[in-house]
Amino acid sequence: MLRQPVNLGSVVDDLQYQMANSDVVNIVGTNSTGVASSSPDACALKAPSGIISYEPDELMVSIFAGTSMSEINFELQRVRQRIVIPEWGTIGGAIATCRNGLRESHHQTLPNNVLQCTVVAADGSLFQGGGQVVKNVSGFDLVKLLVGSWGLLGLIVEVTMRTEPIPQASQWVQSPEPVASEQISNLYRPAVVTRVDGVMYVLLEGHKLDVEQEISHLHGFALCESPNFIHSTSLTNLHRLSQDLPHSIEWDIRKQFDPTNKLNRHIAIQRNLFT
Amino acid sequence: MSGVVHTSTAELFLVGQDASNMMGNPAGVCYPTSTAEVQEAVRWARSKGMAFIARGAGTGLAGGAIPTAGSLVICLTKMNNIRSVDVHRRAAWVEPGVLNADLSRHTSRHGLHFAPDPSSQQSCTIGGNVANNSGGPHCLSEGVTSAHILALEVVLPSGEVCILDAENSLFDLRGAFIGSEGMFGIATAIEVRLVQNPPHVSTMVVGFASVHEGAMAVSAIIASGIIPSALEMMDAPITRAVEEYVHAGFPLDAAAMLIVEIDGLEHSVSDGTRQVKDIVLRFGATSFKVAQSAAERALIWKGRKTAFGAIARIQPNYYLHDTVVPRKKLAEVLSQVSAIATEEQLQVMNVFHAGDGNLHPILMFDKRVEGVMDRVHRAGSEIVRVSLEAGGVLSGEHGIGLEKRDFMRWMFTENDLLFQQKLRAAFDPEGISNPHKVLPRGSGCADASSIPPGSWM
Question: Residue B324: which of A111, A135, A240 has the nearest Cβ?
Fold first, then answer.
């Protein structure tokens, strides 16, 4: 019983061919992060789009990585489910840049919700990490490595994500005044706690009555809409620069996965991972 | 090396085994008490051309802690300090030898706990949890170990020390390290995330007339949009064995029982409990009981987590398996497992994390019976096969180790394995950190040449 390579159709076959036959490749989505550059000599490759399979009862969806987040969440919302990733760009882009949003609660953070990735490697071969179940410790965790890898290790073409039920109630509150830290620490697992320009924002989610009760314990807060500032957080990941020792491991990983520096050179150079 | 390397037969015998049925033959063992001493031990092993293997409590079931012949065992049980607890950030720095349950006991005064709760939590270490990306019943809602580790201080196979966290690298090296079964280096300090203890908890015990109905109820609960904090199943043989041993009040007339726990704020718990009751009754539940006190709840969990102790009363030996299947395939795969056991004339019991689809069939036997191990291994590989055919994976929480190494080609292509090997090679180019585990031989794995001859494998 040997595992046979997955067949994702001719579009992925074509991407593999182009990858294998290009010297320089830029991986592109919708450029929602604003960092994609267009070197004139680069072959721009984009993951296909579309939902491959969705099983609401299993809380799991398999998607081509070029699918837009708004399309995915539109489908999921029909059965009151969601993937908590800010609603712009593609799912592949969100994973490649670890676009987590501001979620505090761990089970809602992106890396824990990516169950499987299928990748066109720099040499044009196809590899998979993870599996299509919610719990999996079979082998080394290529999925965690790929989340936030900025296209430096391969072109993610397919992902399987864990979905979650949309909570009954969801309410943002804000306080422009400094807030006693006990107020926040007394809340039970708020979905988001963040401070922007001196304003404290909190998102509470769950049973309607529980959310109301939690809000009633807060002083100096007012109900508010979902704030727009979430958009501005996506670039932070790229700008946290590595200076330390693990750099040598990152360098080696990059060299192992892309020995000819084919992928996303502009990011590799910026990150000092141009091997 | 200033630390002592012990070579007495008795000590090597002890560290040559873990909770699997395998046995290794190390050359020496040392018990460092600091990161510097771990570093020294790694450098010493390197200078001698020896492989090394980190070891915690040895509770692993897949042979991940079985030392290869001639290797140095670096036993971390003396590094068992909780270095600091940051109540405000809900985080703590701990050493790898801290016992899982001790950490949560230590932080309970702050209303916090470490969420991963493997059944071995009274004796397993946090370092071992990191190496195996351990789970436990409550990982259904909380996520596995990886979701609860913020940073790692690691001694790399090169002997260098570094911090793996979100700040220091572009790639998630922390995430890649967790679950690497000791093959990427040794974690010498671990920053864990602590979570708030739930203000309300509802623990239900539900009996069913058939395993099939129980399994269908599991799928229906998940599909309804409730995420219980735990959703466990026990079949009748294990329920009876446990009940005689623990007296937890489990339904003895049921063919299968579920433990369903919901925690959180008041209304989500009370509404959730009501919804679960409706669902299980719709799927033919024959009994439904909610724990009325903390003591009653503790007894239920004691029953669940000491299940393996109860088995010793039935047969002297057991083999505990670990695969994951899609939840909708639970009923089907459970009946296949039962048929496999019958075919090999083995007794089987099931106690497992149903909400995750994480099966734990237990094959029971007396190893003094001639030829029984062949039947046990045949049944085991059949269980793996039917799980993979159902769309599942090799392991949900025990890891690959030696036990499932040669099944990896059933789940992954050669190219998948090649990229796993590339990741390993970036951390451990010489293949000296716990060699020969996880990746099957011939998958571009460079380990073979770097360990002394006479390997037991």
Answer: A135
